[in-house]
Hints:
11 strands, Oxidized Rhodanese, domain 1, alpha/beta, five-stranded parallel β-sheet
Amino acid sequence: xxxxxxxxxxxxxxxxxxxxxxxxxxxxxxxxxxxxxxxxxxxxxxxxxxxxxxxxxxxxxxxxxxxxxxxxxxxxxxxxxxxxxxxxxxxxxxxxxxxxxxxxxxxxxxxxxxxxxxxxxxxxxxxxxxxxxxxxxxxxxxxxxxxxxxxxxxxxxxxxxxxxxxxxxxxxxxxxxxxxxxxxxxxxxxxxxxxxxxxxxxxxxxxxxxxxxxxxxxxxxxxxxxxxxxxxxxxxxxxxxxxxxxxxxxxxxxxxxxxxxxxxxxxxxxxxxxxxxxxxxxxxxxxxxxxxxxxxxxxxxxxxxxxxxxxxxxxxxxxxxxxxxxxxxxxxxxxxxxxxxxxxxxxxxx
Length: 350
């Protein structure tokens, strides 16, 4: 018989040689799943809709019979996919109901090591919501600064070197501005909350976490209030780079020549907030595809003034870190963190 596992048990299994399999339809999987899961569906999108329609008009028994008829034809291929994984498996559906029970039962009969998530993805989300509301929040260091100062690049480099980093924009798949979704497929709130909760759980034994300064919203994503308020009262490392470097960073990140129409559409969304002569200058540069000129004007006359207006915080929390390049600033951040780590260790000894 297969084993049922709790959401907490599943979280720990995720960090082992273990595969999570979402057996819902591809459409459901694309909308939201448990991070790291793969999709081996019992039914295609069309088949699921057909079973649902039968349930609505003919009742549960008729829907079960149709589901069995559809699934029995694909059973050998279904089992083969699981055997090819070569690892123990936990299956889940929406509520831990019929679909995951069926997948677990047939795999167990074919000697595939399998367990089922109690409560399905809904149960895992509810458990993660509880973690976000109750987990101790380690101290944060917040990389702040004007648009284009390379904060995301710095975080990625530090994470590659083993520093504890939570990339909020990466979890949202959005860069946080009116142009922030260009070239990306943003995540929804459900996926963001799961990513954030799992990251916080993974860093519970670390002395601090590094994040980027964000507003309460990243695109359509809302940062959970408890975490956001903690960020607001945490040390702020203000990054300062020359505007020429900032322009280069933005051009590299956004590749506007590959997304010209999206850039134009986004600009029209903020045009009315920009002084008319400057807006005309930017529009002319867009028509000529002079992207460096576009970015420089947006930084100087739109983003920098707005950032300066909205970034007021306690001066005691602020440390400015200036340099001529992202690489130079990254090294200075590492030096500062090294000194702060010594201070944290000293405090823990006391």
